Amino acid sequence: MSLIVQKFGGTSVGDADRIKNVARRVVETHKAGKDVLVVVSAMGDTTDDLVELASRISPAPPGREMDMLLTAGERISMALLAIAIQELGHDAVSFTGSQAGIITTTDHGRAKIVDVRADRIREALAKGKIAIVAGFQGVSETADVTTLGRGGSDTTAVALAAALGAELCEIYTDVEGVFTADPRMVPDARLLHAVSYEEMLEMAATGARVLMARSVEYARNYGVIIRVASSFSDAAGTFVREEDERMEKAIISGVTHDVSEGKVTVQGVTDRAGIAARLFRTIADEGINVDMIVQNVSMAGHTDISFTVCGVTRAWPPTCSMRSGRPASTSR
């Protein structure tokens, strides 16, 4: 049977009734003759609540321990969903990120996937079971639990779809797909039937929250077709895939915005070769992504350098996009 990967976000599993609704949707897909692998996020505001709890104990908790703490949210979701599916008479088994074989770097709070060793999932699927994986998390090659950053469950789902050769990766959320603008701010925004990987990368990198930019980049690299849809309706959603002739007709696909960006200005920088490189090398070593850079004209041998980065918040992990691709153009 062909495999469908389904990812459900925090709002989709926000309470017991919603978990039961997800279970019914998953079972319907399984009854249709598909193997099903489900990736889940933490319930509702669980991650935020855990971050707040940690902040009451320490203003700067260690990254390793924060990862240990925050992975609990997805583990709760995966176990409850497995129970709900079994109540419907279907066999399901849950896996943590490490049990699922998600191998990552050791960068706590923003780890990147380096390998997927999904043997246990393959065995479960071969036995006709529905496999459920905790999103957002993995394990480093030094056996430490890691997290992938905000929205990391999207990346988990796409990475597993790529590793297992899935027919489709469905990302279920609280919106019906990708719109030409944020429908909460633009009531007449239009739902897009399909967007290309490149378009979705630019939209995600410049403020669209429907998909994590890293997950789109992963999908593009491995040819994974994504469908973004609502877990609360049967709308067709939006497909993210390779560009076709119909897509090429659009001049502008959508308008995005990002309120999390912050501008940093370093004043009085000595204007000589290599100074900017030293500045941005230090920033890069901390894993901070810089979007735009402006350097003023030199005056009396000194200049100002301004750049934009994630807005400064107390959230863990960082809430804005982390990407390694090219800068987004302003034409989208």
Short description:
By secondary structure, the protein is of the alpha/beta class.
Q: Could you tell me the radius of gyration in angstroms?
A: 21 Å
Total number of distinct structural domains: 2
Shape label: globular
Give the total of beta strands: 15
- Number of helical runs? 8
Helical proportion, percent range: 25-40%
Q: Determine the CATH superfamily of the largest domain.
A: Acetylglutamate kinase-like
Distance between the terminal alpha carbons, to the nearest Å? Answer: 39 Å
The pLDDT mean sits at 86
Strand content: 15-25%
Largest sheet: 8 strands, mixed
What's the order of the H and E elements?
EHEHHEEEHEEEHEEHHEEEHEE
CATH topology value of the largest domain: Carbamate kinase
Low-confidence stretches: 312-332
Spatially, the strands of the biggest sheet line up as 3-6-2-1-9-11-12-10
Class computed from helices, strands and strand pairing? alpha/beta
CATH class of the largest domain: Alpha Beta
Second rung of CATH, namely the architecture of the largest domain = 3-Layer(aba) Sandwich
